Amino acid sequence: MSEMLEVRWHGRGGQGTVTAAKVFADACLSGGRYVQAFPEYGPERAGAPLKAYNRISSQELRMHCPVLNPKIIIVADPTLLDSINVTEGAPDDAIFIINSSKDPSIIRAKLNVSKKQKVFVLDATKIAIDSFGRPMPNSPLVGALARVSGAVSLETILEDVKKSFGKKFAKKIIDGNLEAAKRGFEEVKEG
Predict the structure, then answer these.
(1) What's the pLDDT tens digit per position in 138-168?
(2) For the residues of 37-99, what is the DSSP string, one character each?
């Protein structure tokens, strides 16, 4: 991992996007990194577009400003590709992780990104439905981010999912989220 990794998440209220950013940050913290995770809300209602951010570093983080040029951009709701510019501020070597059932080449063309920029796709919503019965793409996306970024191991992610969800949910939901994170790690594909 480079000195500092900045991540921007795009989602809609109620999809678990903010929770995903927090879970990823907690896992990186458990893995010995310095972390920040913070949301940016618009109208605070279910279904409204929102952004969440991560900063991960091997050194203490002293900056407390918005993430303007994220190395990794994650889109939890593919309908946002039609309504907002998710590529805004993306550097030449940006990495995109998109929740979609479409072929990665179609997503790459839709994003209109350069050849240097990487596009990864996984059907996180289907994985979530298969794993725990709800269309919440957050756990599969956390698994995919762990794989693509290399910032934290899958084992650490799974331990932190257990910790984060263990106090709030039944064992069946926790086990489903663990399966979803593992499948996200395994099934994400580059396009």
Answers:
(1) 999 999 999 999 999 999 999 988 887 777 8
(2) EEEEESS-STT-EEEEEEEEESS-----S---S-SEEEES-GGGGGTS-TTTT--TT-EEEEE
Q: Which domains does the chain have, with CATH numbers?
A: 4-190 (3.40.920.10)
Residue 2, classed as helix, strand or coil, is coil
Q: Are 77 and 108 in contact (CB under 8 A)?
A: no
Q: DSSP code of 135?
A: -
Structure-block tokens of residue 74:
């994650």
Q: What is the identity of the amino acid at 67?
A: V
∠ CA 162-79-82 to the nearest 5 degrees?
140
Phi and psi at 14, nearest 5°, equal 100, -5
Lowest mean pLDDT among 37-41, 52-56, 69-73: 37-41
Angstrom CA distances, 158 to 73, 99, 126, 134, 171, stand at 22, 20, 19, 19, 14
Token output for 102: 């479409």
